[in-house]
Amino acid sequence: MHRHVAVGGSSRMLRPRQGWPALHAIFNMLALSCIIISDLLLNVHGLKDLKIFVPEAVIMGNAATLSCQYDLEKAALYSVRWYFGQEEFYRYVPREATPTFVFPVAGINVDLTNSDATSVTLKGVTRDLTGTYQCEVSEDAPLFHTDIRSAHMQVIELPKDDPAMQVDKKVIGVNDNFKAVCTVGPSYPPANITWYINGRKVYKTPLQRITQDAFEGSTTYSSLEIYPHSQVLQGFFQAMPKYQTSILLLCEVSILHVFHKNVQQRIGLSMAPPTTISPNLLGLEGSKRYVNGDPDNSALTGAAQCSCSAIGVLTLAVATLLAAQL
Ligand SMILES: *[C@@H]1O[C@H](CO)[C@@H](O)[C@H](O)[C@H]1NC(C)=O
C-alpha cells in the first residue's frame, strides 16, 4: 500500500513544470502501470506461509489427520490438493457446489466428514500408506499463485507379543561371563532394543557385546554379553558393601516415539567364587538378608554346602594329624 503513496508524492513534485502537462500525465500513467506490474510480480497480497502437518508415525488401523496451514492475505482460495507420492487423492475447490473431491488411490480411504479446506483425514491406515504426502495450495484468479509442501508419514505395525528376556545365570561372579537375550514379536518397522542396568544404558564395548537382529516379519532379537572386568559391572563389584548384591537388568523395546515396552530381571552379583568359604558360614549379616530377599540363590546355597564338606574334610585331616603326633 505505502508504495502507491510514495510514488504519488513524486508525481506531485513534477507538477511545477506547467509547460509540459501532457508529458507529465504520460509519466504518471507509466509510473502507475509500473506499480501494478510490480505488485503482480512481487505477490504483495497473496498466498504465503504454507506449512504442512503430517503425523510422523501412526499405528496401523488408526485414523490420520493431515493438515495444511496457509495465509491467503486478500486473495481467494482456488484449490487445495493432497498427493500421496505423485498421486492426487483429495481436492478441495470452494467455488464448486460440492467442494470436496476424492480420487481413488490404492489403500487410501478419505473420511469426508473430517476433511475440509485445511485438513484431510484418512481412515484405517495400512502399512502401504507409509510415504511422502504433499499439500498444494493455489489462490484464485487473477494470479493463481501456487505453493507446495511435503512431509513423511510412517505407518507402524505393533508387535503382538510382549518382550521376553532370558539370562544364562541368575548370579554373576567376578570372573563369570554373562549372557542375556531379549526378544519381541515381529513389528514394522523392526523395534529397537536397548539394554539398561540399574537404569543406566549399557553401551557396546569389547567387554559388553550387544548384537541386534531383525528381519522383516520375524522376531526382533538382541543379545547382551558381559565379560569379566566389563565397565558396567566393575563399578558394582568395587562398590559392593558385602559379599553379595544385585542389579536390575532391563531390556527396552521401542518403535519411534509410538511404542515402548520393557522387561526386567534382577541378577545377583557374587564376590566369592563358588569354591571359597561362603559368607553364610562366617555368619555375616549381608548374606542372610540376601537369602530372605531372593529365592533364586540355589547356586549360593550349593556353594555353602560344598565349602562345608571341604572344611569337614580339612578338620578331619587336622584331627588325624594331631592324633598321630600324640
Ligand atoms: C531406532 O533408533 C535409531 C537411532 O536412535 C532411530 O534413528 C530409528 O528411527 C529407531 N527405529 C525405530 C523403529 O524406532
Overview of the structural elements:
- The protein has 326 residues and is of the alpha+beta class.
- It folds into three domains: 2-42; 48-156, Immunoglobulins (Immunoglobulin-like), CATH 2.60.40.10; 164-296, Immunoglobulin-like (Sandwich), CATH 2.60.40.
- 25% of the residues lie in helices and 36% in strands.
- The protein has helices at 2-14, 21-42, 231-239, 285-293, 298-325, and strands at 48-53, 57-59, 64-71, 77-84, 87-92, 100-102, 119-122, 131-139, 146-156, 164-167, 171-173, 178-184, 192-197, 200-201, 208-213, 220-226, 244-255, 259-270.
- β5 and β6 form a beta hairpin.
- The radius of gyration is 38 Å and the shape is elongated.
- The protein binds 2-acetamido-2-deoxy-beta-D-glucopyranose (NAG).
- 2-acetamido-2-deoxy-beta-D-glucopyranose binds next to β17.
